Amino acid sequence: MTIGILGGGQLGYMLALAGYPLGLHFRFLDPSPEAPVGRIATRITAQFTDRSSLKKFATGLELVTYEFENVPVEAARFLAERVPVLPPPAALEIAQDRLNEKHLFQKLGIATTEFAAVGDQKGLDSAVRQIGLPAILKTCRMGYDGKGQWILRGPEDVVRAKNELPTRNDAVRKATGVSEGAEQSAPFLLERLVPFTRELSVLAVRGRTGETAVYPLVENHHRDGILRMSLAPAPQLDRGVQQAAEDAARRVCDALQYAGVLAIEFFEHQGRLLANEMAPRVHNSGHWTIEGSITSQFENHLRAVVGLPLGSTSALGCSAMLNLIGDVPDSAEVLAVRDAHLHLYGKSARAGRKLGHVTLRASSPEQLASRLGELPSYFHRAEFGLDAVLRHSASARR
């Protein structure tokens, strides 16, 4: 059985590595001739909008899935006329627009921060009056790892943001990526900035016949808008919070007739969860599952879309996943730490680029914290912030 994957980055790379032991084969389509998957699978180098290449790509495939949510929906729909595409293109469409995501959460009774659509500079004033300050302004489309966001704490920040925002016509083209006539949503979203305790994420996997399994909630730590470390299961977690996350994930999966892994990111605020956004794919905060769970998110995604029984999502002790950003540490120093697992993606170094990750596994939170402290100096540099993360986590647990 050959599965097509749209996108050839590290997520696709890890999907293929999980699928080969199951007897699966893979074909990738990615615009970059340097996409990492070229080392381990057939890769077609073409734009996602190239229909002749899409036809070639689809020939002989059992199904198509994707490894990131910015694949053009039109490409997914074009392929769906020829071969099953899972998760369904409708999930892709919703996840590409933050306002649509918020409306879906509202419809399903999933709590979010207060929000308002912003069409242009003038609309920002109205939204600020409605939402109040502090708030965060985001592009509805694109933008990740902190890009496309403005934090507004006072009137001077609003003025600055208004000066930086494009005009209405440019906003539609640049922020949404579509022509004005095809606009589906306002180009910006203003959200109330809540003083959350921590950021959490849940990964659920739903099979083609509706069976669902959910991984333990994960505590995420960011720096400069980029995920640096995930702790799994999330420490000091109330069972009711885990249940609320599982319920939200199941509602979304069922509403979309989903198949595959779905990630939802939350803020924990005053003991309850506020949904931030979702990703219809395997997720960075789930990388710990390769060594830290009975069945990895990558294997379970493939099981789900192919129609195989889902694997257990139970954790094996405690894990920490740390992203390698911009450059990588000495491999020998990392692997000298007991139960450290190094994953390098084969990508060229560049500031802000995710080049790999390290997962540590331990039998208890205390043992995990000790092993984190044993990591080489790379992880304790100011720009990585591990020392600050460890202090924050220790303080939160007291």
Give your account of this protein's structure.
The chain is of the alpha+beta class and 398 residues long. Helices cover 33% and strands 26% of the residues. It is built from 14 helices and 17 strands. The protein has helices spanning 10-19, 51-58, 73-80, 89-95, 98-107, 121-131, 155-164, 168-176, 239-255, 289-292, 297-306, 331-335, 365-373, 386-397; strands at 2-6, 25-30, 42-45, 63-66, 115-118, 135-139, 149-152, 188-192, 198-206, 212-214, 218-223, 226-232, 260-269, 272-279, 318-325, 340-344, 354-362. Strands 9, 10, 11, 12, 13, 14, 15, 16 and 17 form a 9-stranded antiparallel β-sheet that branches. Strands 3-2-1-4 form a 4-stranded parallel β-sheet, sandwiched between helices. A hairpin with a 5-residue loop joins β9 (198-206) and β10 (212-214). The longest helix has 17 residues, at 239-255. 45% of the residues are buried.
Structure summarized in a few sentences:
The protein is an alpha+beta fold.
